[in-house]
Amino acid sequence: MTTSGSTPRIRLTQALYLLVLALVATSGGRSLQGGLALLAQAAGFVLVVTAVLGRLWITLFIAGRKEEQLVRDGPFAQCRHPLYLGSIIGAIGIGLTTLSLTLTIILPLAIGAIAFTAARREDADLLAAHGGAWREYRDSVPAFWPDWSHRRMPESVAVTPRIYRKAFLDAASFLALWLFVLLLESLRAGGAWQALFSLP
């Protein structure tokens, strides 16, 4: 199996989400209950769907081009790391779905820390590869928070189906994670098994 510079980040993220599933399955005492719980899970679903659709849209512009080109079109005209922003939005959605205020705060912070570290490494790689062009891009486009006034849309984008298929599965995994969190929380709260500890 091949590895890349992003492999450690992906494995760390996967391990973090597996930990979240384990915590949801084994803990009780949620902070968000009743109508607030329904609202939190609905908001979580909206954020996860936003992350999935956003990552699919963003990937159209970057898949297969990331290593060779300085991509500045579409969402990359508005922020330099929109995929990582999508991951943080998805993490907030997953956190809300757990109904745990603790996980709703900690999970996006942890994913954010992973994203910021990866973004710094990627920025260094882009600087080495593109020099002055990247500096000009860095100085005009924010790293994470989009500047919606920047619009730069190409007439067309070439997409490699094999690469985009992998990106599709990666984005769709957020939905699978959301479903697992919802299922585990519902089963545990419904008495399928006893919580081992409280996680408000």
Low-confidence stretches: none
Alpha-beta content class: mainly alpha
Strand order in space, largest sheet: 1-2
What portion of the residues fall into strands of 2 or more residues?
under 5%
Number of DSSP helical runs = 6
Average of the residue pLDDT scores: 91
User: What's the alpha carbon Rg, rounded to whole Å?
Assistant: 19 Å
The largest β sheet comes out as: 2 strands, parallel
Q: Which descriptor suits the 3D outline?
A: elongated
Number of DSSP E strands: 2
Report, as a whole number of angstroms, the end-to-end distance. Answer: 40 Å
Q: Roughly how much helix do the residues carry, as a percent range?
A: 55-70%
Helix and strand sequence: HEHHHHHE
Question: SSE layout and pairings?
Answer:
Layout: H1 7-26, E1 27-28, H2 34-62, H3 82-97, H4 101-130, H5 132-140, H6 161-189, E2 197-198
Helix pairs in contact: 1-4, 1-6, 2-3, 2-6, 3-4, 3-6, 4-5
Describe the model.
The protein is mostly helical and 200 residues long. It has six helices and two strands; from the N terminus they run αβαααααβ. It has a two-stranded parallel sheet. Helix 1 packs antiparallel against helix 4, helix 2 packs antiparallel against helix 6 and helix 4 runs antiparallel to helix 5. The chain is elongated, with a radius of gyration of 19 Å. The protein starts with 6 loop residues before the first helix and ends with a strand. The model has no long low-confidence stretch (mean pLDDT 91).
